[in-house]
Design a protein that fits this description.
Pfam families: Acetyltransf_3 (PF13302). Residues 39-165 form the N-acetyltransferase domain. The chain is of the alpha+beta class and 167 residues long. It has one domain (27-158): Gcn5-related N-acetyltransferase (GNAT) (Aminopeptidase, 3-Layer(aba) Sandwich). The protein has helices at residues 48-56, 74-86, 134-150; strands at 4-9, 12-17, 20-24, 33-34, 38-42, 91-97, 102-113, 118-126, 155-158. The strands form two sheets. Strands 4-5-6-7-8-9 form a six-stranded mixed β-sheet, sandwiched between helices. The protein is globular, with a radius of gyration of 16 Å.
Length: 167
């Protein structure tokens, strides 16, 4: 069982887990990021079926260079998202197409080190019918804007694989 609590040092709150400093408060807030083409909503149970449908569009779980959950294993995906949020290490979003109001994929802030003001963006997947559209570009712009302007981070890293490309 995870154990963490808040400790105060020099009037700043820090999140401690198993006697290890995890992050400086405040941790991620569950915010919705709105764009012209997509909306990023903090992942919740209401996105479950939509993510299953998005993963099925292109059988994304069969891609060897990334992890996309099979619809039958979506519970593991949601548990990891919840666990990472609970310890202040990440925030997972459902990517919503504004035109259809449907879930088209997911992306996340991960491996956050808010004390050093760094975070990674990764674990992104989009339904095949939304790949090579403005959806991923705008999702990343929304996340970068939030990371630099609202969270005042100094560094954001993208995690991707060189095999994740098409001619």
């Amino acid at each position: 069982m995870l154990f963490y609590h808040l400790a105060h040092a020099n009037s700043a709150a820090y999140r401690i887990r198993e006697n290890r400093l995890i992050s400086k408060e405040p941790c991620f807030e569950k915010v919705t990021l709105q764009g012209n083409f997509v909306r990023l909503e903090p992942l919740s149970e209401c996105h479950w079926q939509g993510l299953c449908h998005a993963a099925t569009d292109g059988r994304l779980w069969e891609l060897f260079f990334t992890f996309v959950p099979h619809p039958n294993n979506m519970d593991v995906f949601f548990k990891k998202a919840d666990d990472q949020y609970d310890i202040g290490a990440g925030l997972t979003f459902a990517i919503i197409d504004v035109t259809t109001n449907s879930v088209i994929g997911s992306t996340r802030f991960m491996n956050a080190n808010l004390i050093n003001k760094t975070v990674e963006i990764g674990s992104t997947f989009l339904a095949q019918s939304f790949q090579r559209t403005q959806a991923n570009t705008e999702a990343k712009l929304l996340m970068l804007t939030y990371a630099f302007d609202s969270l005042a981070l100094n560094r954001v890293e993208f995690l991707t694989d060189y095999l994740n490309s098409r001619p």
